[in-house]
Design a protein that fits this description.
alpha/beta, Rossmann fold, 8-stranded antiparallel sheet, 6-stranded antiparallel sheet, 35% helix, globular
């Protein structure tokens, strides 16, 4: 992994590839490269580090060809260096690959015994050699034979110098999308790479393969069975992935949250009945009333959103909820009983751990509902029903607006399910009225960005940080700690506030800042006691409190206020200052906020 771009039929192939790679920078990567089919042979250029390094190494006079493939790599097998960068070449075959070839060691031994020589430490190079070994003048056949013997996940683009107007793509577990043009066709791992060139796209499903030539596109299964794919239209604009005057994509996306939260509930609220309509949930009222258990499957930030959803669904729908790490779910023996609904949450809709967990749940008989941001994604296509969060393109690797949109959708689900059982119309109406106010309240928190930056300046040099929260704000403590870790590289941990005394309290001293989410709710008095415990040990306290609070404010070194709202809606407000705190600390420390090291936007390998 991480980003694939291909183009066939354009005299500007190299510049289109470079532009596409730049549009995929947000996905995270450590090297980049491209290969162009030219009259003088394959022209291969690869460089470690950022795309600017690749761009500086390009000799445009040598890159005059109409067909090529390119890649940004996030290292899995082998160090991030020029040799391990993609594309990988074997003879006249060139290949870029997202995913992992699990049986690469055995294949490498077989190929070495047949005289193949390897130069990299990657699993991808094995696949390039394997295709070359099978090649007898028909690249389509060679790719199909090679993919028939490999185990693992892949999204690939392949070229051959003897067939210079052909790109072959195939996928199993790693996304690929085809861009349809006139005399020019495109292949990429993300539609963003093709923006500005085409809006007509075809999403490949697992086990499918595509051949791209200037004159047209042909889709089959990897087993060579003919299939017909629907052409879809990209609905968002290029300017949605531009920074819009902000210093970083992450900051832009933090400040977009009043709008993205509003977009998440727009058209889905029925104010006259205190009810919710989610068109993608193809469940009858009878089916909704007979949900006996909900399992939420997710990873990372989406898992934290799922934890918030657990509180919401149990409180308002009275349905037992378990939140599972998708990466662990299918490696044990999960019990799926009749009446089990699985909510599968993924911003990209391509997270491989979440996708495989969803498939396992379906195999065991669960009803599966996807929650994703990406139209046409694998989870959106394979889930039985689902809901789009409508957050728009999220470019920053550290998720912000997608998180609050996911929580908003889970809040709507809690009301929807609750109204089918015990939740009254009056109570539903009251909850929705408060939800509709939240975008304006989020803006009030965002208006404190400069004040939060001043607090960040105090703590930017620290090496550790502890985040505490109770109840529905405990997941927000986890999310705040994750954001700080992701982009500033400061070690941070989130805990339920009551658990502090069961271990973490040993760490507290004047060099350990403690961020406490201490909004007014039923556990307020308890969290006052937790703050006093930190203060007694000279810990530095940064508190997130409800406007008008004086008690915890008096105990704190720094205070950030959020407006008052319903207790179970507070996560949509309390997470905002934590996003800003992490952002400002990372900027002060000089870190790459949008592309933090070692991280990728869409994790398509296990």
């Amino acid at each position: 992994m991480c980003g694939i771009v291909g183009v066939v039929g354009s005299p500007n192939a190299a510049s289109i590839l470079l532009e596409g790679l730049k549009r995929l920078e947000y996905r995270g990567y450590d090297s980049a490269g491209m290969v162009i089919m030219t009259p003088d042979g394959q022209q291969l250029v690869k460089e470690k580090g950022k795309i600017v390094n690749l761009e500086a190494a390009l000799n445009w006079d040598e890159l005059k060809g109409t067909c090529g493939i390119a890649h940004t790599r996030w290292a899995t097998h082998g160090a991030p260096n020029q040799i391990n960068a993609h594309p990988h070449v074997s003879g006249k075959v060139a290949l870029v690959h997202n995913g992992i070839i699990e049986n690469q060691k055995a294949l490498k031994i077989q190929l070495t015994n047949k005289g193949h020589e390897f130069v990299s430490q990657t699993d991808t190079e094995v696949l390039a050699h394997l295709i070359e070994d099978f090649y007898d003048g028909d690249l389509v056949k060679a790719v199909q034979l090679a993919l028939g013997v490999v185990d693992g996940a892949f999204g690939i683009a392949v070229t051959h110098l003897d067939e210079p107007d052909l790109i072959i793509g195939a996928r199993r577990g790693s996304p690929l999308v085809v861009g349809v043009g006139e005399g020019v066709n495109y292949l990429a791992s993300d539609v963003a790479a093709m923006m500005g060139h085409t809006r007509q796209v075809i999403y490949l499903d697992d086990g499918e393969m595509v051949t791209l030539r200037p004159e047209g596109i042909h889709t089959t299964t990897i087993d060579n069975e003919e299939i017909t794919k629907e052409i879809q239209e990209i609905t968002w604009d290029l300017d949605q992935i531009q920074k819009g005057g902000y210093e970083h994509f992450m900051l832009k996306e933090i400040f977009e949250q009043p709008q993205t939260i509003r977009d998440s509930f727009r058209g889905r609220i029925l104010p006259g009945t205190g009810d919710v309509k989610l068109g993608g949930i193809e469940l009858t009222d009878w089916e909704l009333r007979n949900i006996r258990r909900i399992i939420i499957l997710a990873c990372g930030t989406s898992w934290h959103a799922g934890l918030v959803g657990e509180y919401l669904l149990e409180e308002y729908a009275h349905i037992p909820v378990e939140v599972e790490y998708a990466s662990e779910f299918r490696y044990r023996s999960p019990i799926i009983e009749p009446g089990t609904l699985c909510l599968v949450i993924s911003q990209s809709g391509e997270t491989i751990d979440t996708l495989e967990a969803m498939r396992e749940a379906k195999r065991k008989g669960a009803k599966v509902l996807g929650i994703t941001n990406t139209v046409g994604s694998t989870i959106a296509r394979e889930s039985e029903c689902g809901v789009y969060i409508h957050a728009g393109p999220e470019i920053g690797v550290a998720s912000t607006k997608a998180f609050t949109s996911q929580v908003t959708i889970l809040a709507l689900m809690a009301i929807l399910f609750g109204r089918r059982t015990h939740l009254s119309a009056d109570r539903g109406t009251q909850m929705l009225q408060e939800l509709v106010k939240l975008p304006d309240l989020v803006q009030k928190v965002l208006d404190q960005s400069d004040a939060i930056k001043q607090i960040a300046e105090v703590y930017a040099g620290h090496k550790n940080c502890l985040y505490l929260g109770r109840g529905v704000n405990f997941p927000i403590a986890l999310e705040g700690a994750l954001k700080l870790k992701e982009i500033s590289y400061i070690h941070a941990e989130g805990y339920p506030a009551a658990e502090m005394k069961h271990g973490p309290i040993a760490l507290i001293d004047p060099d350990m800042p403690v961020v406490v989410i201490a909004t007014k709710d039923g556990s307020y008095d308890k969290i006052v006691g937790n703050v006093q415990e930190v203060r007694a040990r000279d810990g530095k306290i940064i508190s997130i409190v409800t406007e008008g609070d004086t008690e915890i404010a008096a105990l704190s070194d720094h205070v950030i206020t959020i407006p008052e709202t319903m207790n179970f809606w507070t996560p949509l407000l309390s997470v905002i200052p934590l996003q800003l705190f992490a952002y400002h600390i990372a900027v002060i420390r000089g870190e790459d906020v949008d592309q933090p090291r070692n991280l990728a936007k869409a994790v398509t390998v296990e």
